[in-house]
Specification:
By secondary structure, this protein is of the alpha/beta class. It has a single domain, classed as 3-Layer(aba) Sandwich (Rossmann fold), CATH 3.40.50. Helix content is 41%, strand content 14%. It has a seven-stranded mixed β-sheet, sandwiched between helices.
Length: 285
């Protein structure tokens, strides 16, 4: 299998490396602005496409787990001769980042979580499970219009700007290609992994200093659309989830963006990156 990645070295290195872990509907490339800002601040950046995503292999058979994706990421870093890193994950990448920090505490210098999913266990709260075959049928119906509507509502709080469109086309393109069935199948397996492998119960064991960057207008919850109304009303509440995460993780700092949604790094990159760099600097003292 092939794991694609970017290795971006800064013009003036500060000695630290940040590993950027993308979300379910994202790729390494969607970290574009964050990579630039971190590089200008002196950080080396490693941004992989996880197996099953974007430019990496989408296997016909694979036992997806957050442990395996963390091992893949650790093996990539080892191949590059990189030891301790700042691990930064967004959305599903936040679940992976937490798993990485739990598995490799000595190699995790700091943990940064950007609107991570996994701060709650949806199945325990009453969200019905979907089979892999049901996820597959849903993913086969993916289109640019559906992606755009979902992202506008969830990521950008009902707003839309032209600079968001390339990321819509990035996802839609993979679902228009001749290999779209393979893309949909891997996507189904990944959704099943996300739904069935919560990390929320283990957050108290995270040792790394943790920065939580939370857009409070986010309402993301996996399979929320199939949940009963009374369940929908109590999941995906990020103002509550951010505060819960900050209490559950032993050495955590919470920064909230009251008017931003699921992707604050894209919706308001200036405010987001200012908070990120400040948080990284404070943890390094």
């Amino acid at each position: 299998m092939h794991m694609a990645y970017m290795d971006v070295r800064p013009p003036r290195a500060n000695g630290s490396t940040v590993v950027l872990l993308h979300g379910k509907n994202f790729c390494a490339a969607t970290w574009e602005e964050t990579i630039r800002v971190l590089g200008e601040a002196g950080y080396r950046v490693i941004a992989p496409d996880q197996i099953g995503f974007c430019k990496s292999t989408k296997p016909a058979r694979y036992q997806y787990s957050f442990q395996q994706l963390a091992r893949n990421t650790h093996a990539l870093l080892a191949s590059l001769g990189i030891g301790r890193v700042i691990v930064m994950g967004h959305s599903t990448g936040g679940m992976l980042a937490m798993r990485y920090a739990l598995m490799y505490p000595d190699q995790t210098q700091q943990l940064v979580l950007v609107n991570p999913i996994g701060l709650e266990d949806w199945k325990a709260k009453g969200v019905p499970s979907l089979s892999v075959d049901e996820w597959y049928e849903r993913e086969l119906a993916t289109s640019a219009d559906r992606i755009r509507r979902y992202e506008q509502e969830t990521y950008y709080v009902g707003r839309w700007r032209a600079e968001y469109e390339p990321w819509v086309q990035m996802l839609a393109g993979m679902n228009r290609d001749p290999g779209k069935q393979q893309v949909a199948w891997n996507s189904a397996l990944i959704y099943d992994m996300i739904f069935t492998q919560p990390v929320v119960y283990e957050m108290g064991r995270i040792k790394a200093p943790t920065l939580l960057l939370i857009g409070d207008k986010d309402t993301t919850a996996i399979a929320k659309d199939v949940a009963p109304a009374e369940v929908k009303a109590k999941i995906g509440l990020y103002p509550e989830l951010g505060k819960f995460g900050a209490k559950a993780i032993p050495n955590a700092t919470l920064v909230e963006f009251p008017e931003l949604g699921h992707a604050p790094q894209m919706q308001d990159p200036v405010a987001f990156h200012e908070a990120l760099l400040k948080g990284l600097a404070e943890a390094a003292r």
